[in-house]
Amino acid sequence: MDITSIKELAKRMRLLSLTMAYKAGKNGAHLGGGLSLIEIMAVLYGGVLNINPETPINPERDIVLMGKGHGVLAYYTALYEAGFISKEDIDSFEKEGSLFIGHPVKDISKGIEYSSGSLGMALSVGVGMAISAKNRKSHRKIYVIMGDGECQEGSSWEACFLAAKYQLDNLVIFVDNNRIQSDGFSKDICGYDNLEEKFAAFGCEVKSINGHSVEALLNALEYHNYNKPNVIIANTIKGKGVSFMENNYKWHHSVLNKSQYETALAEVRSTYAGG
User: Fold this and answer.
1) According to the model, what pLDDT value does residue 273 have?
2) Is this prediction's pTM over 0.90?
């Protein structure tokens, strides 16, 4: 897999995410958590996933469930780059009557496997899909994208129990660990830490990596204990790539004005090679 191409893809996705958010106008967009996800989604859609927009209902396709439903800027731009959605779809983001709103709405023909918004449910759905795939001896993999704030939901841990019990090594859980949620820092809101230890205690194979490193993400996906669900704690920065958004919970969801938009584009263009 060409690492340079994935990094270029991530840059295009970051730039397009900013444009989508700016064009959304007064509706605003979930910028912070979208930008923290970019490299994760670029790695998956840049070559890891067994998917094909020409056969979106292939029963052997890999599945991505966006538990962190507000991460749509990274999700939609990845689907666009992978050929599942069109430029017209992207341009309709948050417009009246559009399918492409602030949380994904299931449409398998567009590569969207799951409607999300309420947090803590996607992992349960993913566990069910992974059990089904094992029972029919399918080689498909199920990828669940969660936020660290979502790990405060009890249903997520109940699902972990089952995933470990059934040795779901076809299940990959990404935690976008940007340490910030909608109204502040996660540690101040719920007070938890050591996600690695917690997932391990629930019977998962756990890796903690730099979630903005394409190389680290690829390595984490390659090496896996084949008796346990694979949890990848991707340590990320909320609003990654734009200095005034980074580690700032006010950019969880906000409106981007013209001056901010132009500054953000310039920073991304100057910071990231290629693209």
Assistant:
1) 62
2) yes
Domain 3-271 top-level CATH class = alpha beta
Question: Per-residue pLDDT for 114 more than 90?
Answer: yes
CA distance 221 to 165: 21
At 178, the pLDDT band (50, 70, 90 cuts) reads: confident
d(CA 80, CA 75): 9
Q: Tokens 């566990």 map to which residue?
A: 127
Distance of CA 256 to the CA centre of its chain: 21
d(CA 71, CA 69) in angstroms, rounded, equals: 5
CA distance 39 to 150: 19
Residue 63: strand pairing partners: 142
21, two tokens = 């958010």
Burial of 34 (0-12, 13-18, 19+ CB in 10 A): buried
Count of beta carbons in the 10 Å neighbourhood of residue 115: 15
Assess whether pLDDT exceeds 70 at residue 270: yes
Supply φ then ψ for residue 187, to 5 degrees.
Answer: -65, -30
Cα(211)–Cα(234) distance, integer angstroms = 4
Tokens 């050591």 sit at which residue?
Answer: 194
Q: Is the pLDDT of residue 137 over 70?
A: yes
What is the rounded CA–CA span in Å between residue 221 and residue 210? 13
